[in-house]
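Our platform keeps sequence and structure together, in a single record for each protein. This encoding replaces a full spatial description with a residue-level series of whole-number codes. We quote a single record here, exactly as it is kept in our systems:
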Amino acid sequence: MNIKYLILSVFILTSIVAYGQEAPPKVTIVQPHNGATFNGEQVTIVYEVSGTEPKSAKIFVDDRAQQLLTEVTTGENSATVDVPQKDCKISVVVQNAHGASEPAAVNLKRNEQIFKPSLYVLAVGISNYDNPDLRLRYPAKDASDFAQALIRQAGQLYESVDVKLFTDRRATAENIHDGLDWLQKQTTSRDIAMLFMAGHGINNNVGDFYYLPVGADMERLSATCVSYRDIKATIDAVAGKMLVFMDACHSGNVLGGNQQRAAMVSQAVNDLTNADNGAVVFTSSTGRQFSLENSEWNNGAFTKALVEGLNGKADLFGLEVITVKTLEAYVANRVKELTGGQQAPTTIVPGSVPDFPLAIVNVNIEISNSVININDNTKSPVRRPPVYLAVYAGMSGYGSVSIADVKGTPGILRAEAAFFLNQRIAAGLVFNTLKCEIDSDGDKIKETVTFLGPALYGRFGSDRLFFIAGAGGGMLKWKIATDKINNDVGAYQNNTDNTSAGCFVSAGANYMLTPNLGIGLNIQSVLGAITDENNVKRSPAAPGCTLGINFMF
């Protein structure tokens, strides 16, 4: 019996060994462990094989075969695997002559740092053109408001926001061309570039579109302006995503309109969107419409809608993100609402460009200066209220005596200086003096009436032709020198020198020959109450008409 049991045991052990030698191999992944994190585009795995004569190993990423390795040995092996930009699963299956192993798998988590893009913005807006016929109210403010809306995204959606802002006097053709070069050179393939242009544009006689810088010469467009071909060249060269916001227009005065902007021509827009990299182009209106601006909005309608959208109102689905598509939809509806359907903005997105985020909502506006760079080449884009200086001379009546007694024409001289607190109201100082000679009962009398005091002014009209009215109160000085012919004194004597309170009023029209020099025609009067040498109360008045020159700075 013992021999029988011994033989049976040997048989069983032999069978077990033989089965083990003929079984498929086993595999385990040694590194990385399950749940490990990884960076980069590749991961090296170490796997251990047991069993007889392994012939090959197959590597799977997310259950899709990636590599077939034919040099596999019993023990430890390694392989470098390409991994996606997300969490993934890596599996290994080893095969020998008897079959394939059970798969060994690990789940890995991507822990790569998120690289935010940088945003580069070139914003140009011109309200105060050198040519008074081209002046508008809000393009300079439009450019500033657009830039400020994007600065809020610094350190949030964007790693940094770098802005070049050119408005009014800074928006020269040279600066704009330099800005386009800067935009092209700074933007890398992972960044976003934005170009915003507000102001005037015009087509030449062959239909080419030009943006008008501050010193544009309408007779020398190609030499003094920015061609859409210059803009297209920049778009062609920008490596990253590119967006163009165009509110450039024809002159309302040139076209017989008032405070209107006309859209960029369709061919130019199509050329921009067909650039090699493809730009997303937002335009303020269609080619047959004017773009409107209104003091109630304190912007052009297009920029008003853009800024509102970027600041959160274009978050149409409550996802706290503004994308190209949601901004397009909001701007289109909002502009139609503001203008009563008179203006319909357009957006063209190249087919190769997918929807992508432009801004996030509820951002923290306490932003570190380290992530913002605003070019210092420009000051406040809202045009600085001008200093107003004027000198007038003319003739005047004189209300204290009969006009029949006045010899010759009384002369009047007025000088005033004021600073405009806004575009309509100014505060300043006025000096007014009148001199005349009077015959009174054979006596020759020279009288001088002088007024000095503060005044307030109101201005109405355009930048080129405007009406201005002023009023003020101050000191009135009345001086009389008499030559008593009957007494043969032979010289003028000072008989009266009175000072009292007085008032001043004026109204007139001014025409600016250049942005800084103009001419004006005014009517005015100085009123007061004084007592002469005979203790008689008199009320001298100096109504008059004057011509003069004025300066605006």
Observations:
- The longest strand covers residues 493-512.
- DSSP finds eight helices and 34 strands in the chain.
- The longest helix spans residues 2-22.
